[in-house]
Write a structure and sequence with these properties.
The protein has 316 residues and is of the alpha/beta class. The chain contains ten helices and 13 strands. The protein folds into two domains: 192 residues, DHBP synthase, CATH 3.90.870; 92 residues, Threonylcarbamoyl-AMP synthase, C-terminal domain (Rossmann fold, 3-Layer(aba) Sandwich). It binds adenosine monophosphate and magnesium ion.
Length: 316
């Protein structure tokens, strides 16, 4: 586990323009000095991430925000007051300080203050904002432990180990418009919680231009993943692993991972990617089947991850 001297070493790497994987409360990030285009380029290279998919910048204090964005929107401060540090990313007009590479040429930048003590200390000690996507190969399962990072990015310069992440899925991403906010990616902070601070803009459709990273396929395991429905129920369960939530579908499966004993959707979020990693690595399992949940509250974010993980396998 990480301590102060590990964080100092990692911060030194960041200052030298190298890459560091670090825990946040959502998933592990692959960080670089956000203001150094050469360092940021290494993120795209190591992840094999297409350059049209913009990065989120992580900050440790609100003073850093002011340098990265243009203009002063009171609503940003109200949202920051309520949800930061925490799993909320705000897409805002960018300042000239932010390299175009970070934002894939967009005039806006995604910013968040992570709710994880190691992440905050790393950013503070580095002395710069840290651009960081999830620390996995592009399109693959997100990492929620240091071991998951090592599995996909064995050649990374440095990994700060902070144990398993506490939220487990990526941040909610919002954009502010004249009318209020739009959700670009669902996460554990729900529309209902956001609406208590800023009005909802009413547009639920994600505009493809404003969220270029919102591919249909993402978080994709190397093995077939199905969302449990009547069709997948015909699959050969003797070689299948079930990601179980309600406990009602478990009979006949070779293996079962229960994501929540208390049947709480927050636990599904915490354990969803780890369950996928476990079945991906298990030689007894050929197919994984995930139990769907109703699309309200955090259920929206869970179903978004499951659909994207299943997308490439829909006709397999
Ligand atoms: P991640 O790869 O989980 O760090 O998330 C990055 C995602 O944030 C991208 O794939 C985009 O969908 C979204 N994002 C980041 N910056 C912007 C931006 N300026 N405008 C719209 N979406 C953004
Ligand atoms: Mg990612």
């Amino acid at each position: 586990m990480s301590n102060t001297s590990n964080i100092e070493t990692a911060a030194q790497y960041i200052r030298e323009g190298k890459l560091v994987a670090f825990p946040t409360e959502t998933v592990y990030g692959l960080g670089a000095n956000a203001l150094n285009p050469m360092a940021v380029a290494k993120i795209f290279e190591l992840k094999e991430r297409p350059s049209f998919d913009p990065l989120i910048i992580h900050i440790a204090h609100i003073g850093q925000l002011e340098k990265l964005v243009q203009g002063k929107d009171e609503r940003v401060y109200q949202l920051a007051e309520k949800f930061w540090p925490g799993p909320l990313t705000m897409v805002l007009p960018k300042s000239t300080l932010v390299p175009d590479l970070v934002t894939s040429g967009l005039p806006t930048v995604g910013i968040r203050m992570p709710g994880n003590a190691i992440a905050l200390e790393l950013i503070r000690t580095s002395g710069c904002p840290v651009a960081a996507p999830s620390a996995n190969k592009f399109g693959r399962i997100s990492p929620t432990t240091a071991a998951h990072v090592k599995k996909q990015l064995p050649n990374i310069d440095y990994i700060l180990d902070g144990g398993k992440t506490s939220v487990g899925i990526e941040s909610t991403i919002i954009k502010l418009t004249d009318l209020g906010f739009q959700i670009l990616r669902n996460g554990i902070i729900t529309l209902e919680e956001l609406e208590a601070v800023v009005p909802f803009d009413g547009h639920t459709e994600i505009e493809s231009l404003s969220a270029p990273g919102m591919m249909k396929s993402h978080y994709s395991p190397r093995k077939r993943l199905l969302i449990a429905d009547s069709a997948s129920m015909n699959a050969d369960k003797s070689k299948a692993g079930l990601i179980s939530f309600s406990g009602k579908l478990e009979s006949g499966y070779r293996k079962v991972i229960r994501v929540s004993e208390r049947k709480d959707l927050k636990d599904y979020a915490v354990n969803i990617f780890e369950a996928m990693h476990t079945f991906e690595d298990d030689p007894d399992i050929e197919v994984m089947v995930a139990e769907p949940v109703s699309e309200t509250g955090i259920g929206k974010a869970i179903m978004d991850r499951l659909r994207k993980a299943a997308y490439n396998w829909r006709q397999a």
